[in-house]
Amino acid sequence: MFLGTHAPKLDDKGRLILPAKFRDELAHGVVLTRGQERCLYVFAEAEFQRHVERIREAPLTSKAGRDFLRLFLSGASAEIPDKQFRVTIPSALRDYAGLERDLTVIGAGNRAEIWASDAWEDYYKDREQAFSETEEEVIPGLF
């Protein structure tokens, strides 16, 4: 499970050193793809396959399902971490998420997310108050 907030740097070759706490789960391969809110999703390869299978269960007649699958998969890139646990983030994905040198990598349960640090700070500031004031059940049965 991916947890926590980390602040790695992107090197000049577009590589990211994976946070130490994520390495065991990602050592055998990662899939990077477009996430929502202009971040990148980082999945262990097996988790990515499970996610794709669930998406593929949407009926072919579902325009929203087709659109989501196209955008999700067309941006996907399978990577194998090197011996220093670096992965290269393709330029198209760096552009999509507005990634420069300062990054924020967060754990989001079944995936990690890579954010431009300023974008993460803005997102966090915009949503923290609403999170603190949540009075109703957001996810049925959770609280």
Write the CATH fold name: Chemotaxis protein chec
How far is it from the N-terminal to the C-terminal residue, by CA?
20 Å
- In the CATH hierarchy, the architecture is 3-Layer(aba) Sandwich
CATH class categorisation: Alpha Beta
SSE ordering: EEHEEHHEEHEEH
Number of helices: 5
List the domain count as a whole number: 1
Q: In one word, what is the shape?
A: globular
**Backbone CA Rg:** 16 Å
Proportion of residues in β-strands: 15-25%
**Total beta strands:** 8
The named CATH superfamily:
Transcriptional regulator MraZ domain
Strand order of the largest sheet: 1-7-8-4-3-5
Give the helix/strand class.
alpha+beta
| Stretches with pLDDT under 50, minimum 5 residues | none
The profile of the biggest β sheet is: 6 strands, antiparallel
Query: Residue share in helices?
Result: 25-40%
